[in-house]
Amino acid sequence: MKILIRLIFSLLIFWVATVSKSKAQASVQATANAEVIEALTTTETAQLNFGRFSPETQGGKIILTPDGVRTVQGTVVLGGGTHNSASFYITGQYEATFSITLPSGPAVLTNTQNNKTMEVTDWSSYPAPGIGVGKLVGGAMTVRVGAVLNVGDFNANPVGLYAGIYAITFAYN
């Protein structure tokens, strides 16, 4: 009888050990997904244009807001003609958010006749720059950019057309 009890007890321990090992782990097949969305695209719909002006005796600054409002500091006198903030039409994935990165330094505008220069600084935008600040409502959004043009006197910035380039980055989050 002792042998029978030992045998039953041994079989019971073996069965518990086998059952608990099989329940200590489980396998499952899971699903993974990925979706490629359309590229973020940008079109410049209006160029940054500080308009016509005269630097006068000391120069100064022309401040152009993202809304296209132009003001001056110093002896700069505004002239007629067109002025406007830059405008960019952004398209991409419906309702996606994106970031706006403005230039970290100045852009240089060079006189096309004599190589004299002016600097564009203090960049601003609407919406304001940052991570996730833009949302492609309906898959599109317009971003407006303003800045400050630093103008020297007549000797530093004589008559002529000044032009230059700058870079703005729009990126999905």
For the CA atoms, what is the radius of gyration? 33 Å
Provide the succession of SSEs. HEEEEEEEEEEEEE
Classify the fold: give the CATH topology.
Answer: Immunoglobulin-like
Task: Name the CATH architecture.
Answer: Sandwich
Structural class of the secondary elements?
mainly beta
Tell me the number of structural domains: 1
Q: Fraction of residues in helices?
A: 10-25%
**End-to-end distance:** 75 Å
What would the principal axes of the Cα set say about the shape?
Answer: rod-shaped
Q: Bin the strand percentage.
A: 35-45%
Count all strands and give the number. 13
How does this model look, in words?
The chain has 173 residues and is mainly beta. It has a single domain, classed as Immunoglobulin-like (Sandwich), CATH 2.60.40. It is 13% helix and 40% strand. The strands form 3 sheets. Strands 1, 3, 4, 6, 8, 9, 11 and 12 form an 8-stranded antiparallel sheet that branches. A 3-stranded antiparallel sheet has the order 10-7-13, with no helix packed on it. A hairpin with a 5-residue loop joins strand 8 and strand 9. It is rod-shaped and about 115 Å long. 17% of the residues are buried. The mean pLDDT is 91.
Quick overview of this protein structure:
This protein is mainly β and 173 residues long. Helices cover 13% and strands 40% of the residues.
Which features would summarize this protein structure in a list?
single chain, 173 residues, mainly beta, Immunoglobulin-like, 1 helix, 13 strands, 13% helix
Write the layout of secondary structure elements.
Layout: H1 2-23, E1 41-46, E2 53-54, E3 60-64, E4 70-74, E5 77-78, E6 86-91, E7 97-101, E8 107-111, E9 117-126, E10 130-135, E11 140-151, E12 162-163, E13 169-172
Antiparallel strand pairs: 1-6, 2-5, 3-4, 3-11, 6-11, 7-10, 7-13, 8-9, 8-12, 9-11
